[in-house]
Write a structure and sequence with these properties.
The complex is a heterodimer of chains A (240) and B (128).
Chain A (H helix, E strand, L loop, with lengths): L5 H6 L6 H9 L11 H30 L7 H4 L2 E3 L2 E3 L2 H25 L3 H31 L13 H33 L1 H4 L13 H26 L1
Antiparallel strand pairs in A: 1-2
Chain B lengths: L1 H8 L5 H23 L4 H23 L7 H8 L3 H25 L4 H7 L10
Helix pairs in contact in B: 2-3
Classes of the chains: A mainly alpha (240), B mainly alpha (128).
Chain lengths: 240, 128
C-alpha cells in the first residue's frame, strides 16, 4: 500500500491468486526436512500413516480380547508344531520371526552397498531379502491352511473366544499383504540395480524418469517397517 | 566436499554395525520366545514381552532405518504422532473394561452361551 513497501513487492516474485495461487503456494519450495530428500520424507509419512492402520488393528484386537468373557485361545498351543514326535510351542512363528529379522539385516546391507555403487552386492542382497520375504509368506500360507483345516474361521474356532479368528486373519493377512508387495518391489528394484539403471540413467518403464540409488533406501525403509510391524504382532498377538 | 556429497547421497556406516544389530535382534527375539517356551505368567511375562518388543523396535528404527542420524525435525514429525496411539490405547482399555463389566453383570448367569450368541457364532441364531 505504502510507497516504501512498493519496491520490495517488485523484487519478490508475484504471487498469483485463485486456484493457480493455491497450487503455487502448496507446491512452493519450502523445505522442512533439510537432511532428507522428498522421497525419504514421503516414505516416512507413508509409513506413519501405515503405523496408524496397524495400530488400529492391534487396538481393536486389544479391545475385543479385554472385553470378552470367553477364554481366549492359547496362542502357544494353537501355533505349536509337532516336530520329531515332540510338541514345540509357537515354533513356526519363532522361525518366521528369525527369517524376517534376517531379511531386514540383508536389506540394511543392500542399502549400504547401493550407496557404495556396488551394484552386484546390492542386487544379490536385495534378492536374498526377497527370498527371505517369499519364504515368510510361504510359511504364513502354511499356517493359515493349518488353522483353517482345524476349523478356525473369522466367526469362531474350536478353542474359545470367537474374535480370535477375526483378529488373526485380519492382522496377519494385512501384514502378509505388505510382505508380498514388498517382495514384488524388491524384485523390480533388484533388477534395475543389477542392470545398472541408476548408473546409465535408463528411464523407468512406469515413470519415464531416471532413477537414483536412493530408491534402494526407500525400499529398505518400507521393508524394515514390515519387520517392525511384525515385532509388534509377534509380541502382542502371539506371545501375550 | 567429499563428505558433504556422501551425506547428500545417503549415509555410510560400516557393515559391522548392521551385523551387530542383526545379532542383537536375534538374541532379543530368542529371549522373547523363551518367555513363552518357559511359560512365564502374569506381570513378569507381560513386562518382559513389552521390554524386548520396545528394544527391538528401537534398534530397527534407529539403526536399520537410520533415524538416529536424521535431523530432529524429521525425528519428531515421525515419532511423536504415534504417541497419540498410546492415548487411544488408554481410552480403549477403559472402554473394554467397562464392556467386560456390563457383560459379566448382565450375561453373568448365561455364561459362555450368552456371550457367543452376541457375536453370532455359527451355532447361534441372530436375535437382534
Amino acid at each position: 500500500m505504502t510507497d516504501t513497501a512498493h519496491p520490495k513487492t517488485l523484487e519478490a516474485p508475484a504471487h498469483p491468486g485463485g486456484w493457480q495461487g493455491f497450487a503455487a503456494d502448496w507446491s512452493s519450495d519450502q523445505r522442512a526436512f533439510k537432511s532428507a530428500t522428498w522421497g525419504k520424507a514421503m516414505i516416512w509419512i507413508f509409513l506413519l500413516s501405515d503405523t496408524f492402520i496397524f495400530s488400529c488393528f492391534l487396538l481393536s484386537y486389544m479391545t475385543v480380547r479385554m472385553s470378552t468373557t470367553v477364554p481366549w485361545p492359547n496362542p502357544s498351543e494353537v501355533f505349536a508344531l509337532t516336530i520329531a514326535g515332540r510338541k514345540i510351542p509357537l515354533i513356526l512363528i519363532a522361525i518366521m520371526t528369525f527369517i524376517l529379522i534376517s531379511s531386514s539385516g540383508t536389506m540394511a546391507m543392500a542399502v549400504n552397498f547401493g550407496y557404495r555403487r556396488d551394484r552386484v552386492k546390492c542386487a544379490v542382497l536385495m534378492l536374498a531379502t526377497a527370498a527371505f520375504g517369499a519364504s515368510f509368506v510361504g510359511m504364513q500360507a502354511f499356517e493359515w491352511t493349518k488353522l483353517i483345516m482345524e476349523g478356525v474361521r473369522p466367526w469362531g474356532n474350536p478353542w474359545g473366544a470367537a474374535q480370535f479368528g477375526s483378529c488373526f486373519f485380519l492382522i496377519t493377512g494385512f501384514h502378509g499383504t505388505h510382505v508380498t508387495i514388498g517382495v514384488i518391489f524388491l524384485l523390480i528394484i533388484a533388477r534395475k540395480v543389477w542392470r545398472g539403471d541408476f548408473d546409465s540413467g535408463r528411464r523407468g518403464f512406469f515413470t519415464s524418469r531416471k532413477g537414483r540409488y536412493e530408491i534402494v533406501e526407500t525400499m529398505g525403509l518400507y521393508w524394515h517397517f514390515v519387520d517392525l510391524v511384525w515385532v509388534f504382532i509377534f509380541a502382542l498377538f502371539y506371545l501375550w | 566436499m567429499a563428505q558433504e556429497r556422501a551425506h547428500e547421497e545417503g549415509q555410510q556406516h560400516p557393515i559391522k554395525l548392521y551385523l551387530v544389530v542383526w545379532g542383537w535382534l536375534f538374541v532379543l527375539s530368542t529371549c522373547s520366545y523363551l518367555v513363552d517356551y518357559f511359560g512365564l505368567e502374569g506381570y513378569l511375562r507381560w513386562s518382559l514381552i513389552l521390554l524386548f518388543m520396545v528394544v527391538k523396535a528401537g534398534l530397527i528404527v534407529a539403526i536399520f532405518m537410520h533415524m538416529a542420524w536424521e535431523r530432529l525435525a524429521l525425528m519428531y514429525a515421525i515419532l511423536v504422532p504415534p504417541g497419540a496411539v498410546l492415548l487411544f490405547v488408554a481410552i480403549m482399555a477403559f472402554e473394554s473394561d467397562y464392556t467386560h463389566f456390563t457383560r459379566v453383570t448382565f450375561f453373568g448367569m448365561g455364561g459362555v452361551s450368552a456371550q457367543t450368541a452376541t457375536f453370532g457364532s455359527p451355532t447361534s441364531k441372530p436375535e437382534h
